[in-house]
Amino acid sequence: MNRKKPKKSDNVLWRLCRKAVLLLLIIGIPFLFFTSTFQLKKIDVVGNERYTKEQITEQLLQSKLDSYTPILYMKYRYFTQFHYPFVEKIDMEMVDNHTITVYVYEKQVAGCVEFMGEYLYFDKDGIVVESSSSQIENIPMIQGLEYNKIILHEKLEVQKDELFDVIINLTQLIHKYDLDVDTITFNKASEVTIDCGGIKVLLGKKRTYDEALSELKNIMAEAEGMDIIIDMSNYVKGTDHIIAKPKKATE
């Protein structure tokens, strides 16, 4: 009795099926293991002040692959720089299979100037670190100056070199004494006026403003919410050369 030989096409189909199953076992099982073992479930953000955790997280997760802990960690640890306004850099720590901690190092911004419709922000050394089309809150705006040039990542240049030192001194002291200053304005005589909400403070022209701003910190605690002008242009430590009057009286 003659047996029928299997068709050649059946043998080919069978071999293809076996290869497909083998390939599925080799690739599919490790893939399922990886996706279930390293699914990113939690991102902790540390050091962020200007941005929320949600904003940082949204910027980090750019693709579906970023939702796996080792991939996200390796990406920003070794291959990709994190680019976001006012962020100097980030560091990452893979806490466990499902958790990453992101350490955010923000650029230290001392003040802001407006130039050709853009807001340019500089650090404590006067280096322009960032530009933006909108003004950021809680960063003092410098007004009344002329600028020789403003180039990103270079030192701010103004019409008088000595004014640069004044600007840096003022912005550092404002940060030191935690004063809420909206604008720092220079007049033609290089005299300084600062605006703190509804309060305008005349500081005049001094070699250093440390003593005046130290005293202003105490005054602001009592003058909060008032709409007044405080004249400290002749203030000397240990004296009472401070004049406060309503703004309306001067209009």
TrEMBL record:
GO terms for biological process: cell division. Keywords: Cell cycle, Cell division, Cell membrane, Membrane, Transmembrane, Transmembrane helix. Coiled coil: none annotated. GO terms for cellular component: plasma membrane. The chain crosses the membrane at residues 21-40. The keyword Amino-acid biosynthesis does not apply. It comes from the Bacteria. This is Cell division protein FtsQ. The lineage of its organism: Bacteria, Bacillati, Bacillota, Clostridia, Lachnospirales.
